[in-house]
Fold:
Amino acid sequence: MARKTIITVATTGAWPKKENNPNVPMTPAEICEDVYECWKAGAAIAHLHMRDDDGNGTMDKEKFAQTVGLLRSRHPDCDIILNMTTSGDLYATDETRQAHLRELRPEMGSYDCGSMNWMHSALFLNPPQFLEELGRNMQEWGVKPEIEAFDPGMIANAAYYLKKGVLKAPLHFQFCMGCANGIPGSMKNLIFMKETMESMCPSSTWSCFGVGHSAMEILYGAVALGGHVRVGMEDNVLYSKGILAGSNRQFVERAARVIREYGSEAATPAEAREILSLNR
Amino acid sequence: MSWGLCYLCYTCAGCRKKFKYAIDMIAELGDDFGKCPVCGMPGIPESEIAIISGDPTYEEVDT
Ligand SMILES: [Zn+2]
Structure:
């Protein structure tokens, strides 16, 4: 049987606006339709961020609820796994970063496993107290953490929380590569992230993406190394050099082609649930 | 949450050309990062920006 590779689409993120790419979906209705298109093209997971009415990142749980409501009512056939960010606004409180998980109980949520600088201009804070609370809450609420690691130290931090019972095996990682102030995106670094994970958190699954020039190297690398992939305008507003992406679907279609050409298959949401032990 | 490409924008100390480098190219370009694509002189850093579609102010250098 062909190996299954999970495609996650990160449609929106917290930073790109229409001035960066007019095709970034921003409103609940736009995000809903975008997710549906990406699901039809082979995405098994949708990583969701919300925007306020000015286009800024927000953790407003009503926006998440509206988006999920639209997806369920307009597209009842869509069984995509929803993965909601807990880091959609640098100035959100610990409470608002989790309220949507408590209320909506998505199958997955992001878990940023350490603090760092953000775009050389602000702090991206994930202090110990927040991570402990979030990890325990996600276990209680049945929301699987997607552990975002921006450098190898964050993998070590996940191993610590695993030993402490804050996180529960099997873990699922997202290696976020090429972000300013994080690990640069390269094949060598991807292998190092994978090997660090395997030695510190055995039996985990992993996915990755590269921001900017490393996007394709990391995509092909993930497929070749047996990982899973994330694509979308949260990470890249350019489809290729100098060319703005026309849609998130375009990224998903390319990932699906790469996966097929390699001899693997894009995992369906049902297959992704099996791979990630989302047995609820 | 990720964040997209940041660019460092420069004006050439010699010929005054305006150009930019994506920060993620530091690892690949090393000492060549920040040099003027026309005359090879070091650029004077001016600002840092994200991708703005259709913005021609600074020419991107990526090789
Ligand atoms: Zn010059």
In short: The first helix of chain A runs from residue 28 to 41. Chain A has a mean pLDDT of 97. Chain A is about 40% helix and 20% strand. Chain A has one domain: 4-275.
